[in-house]
From TrEMBL:
Oligomer status and interactors: Interacts promiscuously (via SAM domain) with EPHA5, EPHA6, EPHA7, EPHA8, EPHB1, EPHB2, EPHB3 and EPHB4 (via SAM domain) (in vitro).
Subcellular localization(s) per the UniProt record: Cytoplasm
PROSITE patterns in alphabetical order: SAM_DOMAIN
Record-annotated membrane-spanning stretches: none
Protein name as annotated: Sterile alpha motif domain-containing protein 5
Cellular component terms per the entry's GO annotation: cytoplasm
Main location class: cytoplasm
SMART domains recorded: SAM
Residues in SAM domain copies: 7-66
UniProt KW keywords: Cytoplasm
Pfam families referenced in this protein's UniProt entry, alphabetically: SAM_1
Length: 153
């Protein structure tokens, strides 16, 4: 299994990296394919933990609504996911991966968390606007947008 696969990275960002190999083995090797994941697919992949299923299905919904760019541009880490991870410590021991996986899982989480750069939404918006202006890009002009003529006579 390649560590650079976008699906594996997506699952790691959800703190569900233990399912990466199973996703790839079942043909879910692209985010466009992952947009189609539902309950029957999770059964086939081997995701039986209800909290993991919920987290995956919510992320799949986000993929559908916001597109794959939402995976690349995570603005702020969700506090709810952090709290859920803390609560699952006891249930993680009873999962298929076993208790010996827990310390490695927490270490990977801490390493990944250290790599995240948090930028508040407003500040990111300002940075993007400034960069677009510097590069002379106007999103309201062609080729980025197409004008619609009101008078089609």
């Amino acid at each position: 299994m390649s560590g650079s696969n976008i699906v594996a990275e997506w699952l790691r960002s959800l703190h569900l990296g233990q399912y990466a190999e199973s996703f790839l083995d079942n043909g879910y090797d692209d985010l466009e394919i992952c947009k189609q994941v539902g309950d029957p697919d999770l059964d086939a992949i081997g995701v039986f933990n209800p909290a993991h299923r919920t987290r995956l299905l919510q992320s799949v919904r986000t993929l559908r609504e916001e597109g794959a760019a939402s995976v690349y541009f995570t603005l702020e880490e969700s506090q709810a996911i952090q709290e859920e991870c803390k609560c699952e410590t006891s249930s993680a021991r009873s999962s298929r991966s076993g208790a010996h996986e827990l310390p490695r899982y927490l270490d990977e989480y801490e390493e990944g968390k250290a790599e995240l750069v948090r930028i508040p939404r407003l500040q990111l918006k300002i940075l993007l606007r400034e960069k677009l202006n510097q590069d002379g890009i106007r999103l309201s002009n062609q080729p980025y947008s197409t004008s619609v003529s009101v008078l089609n006579t």
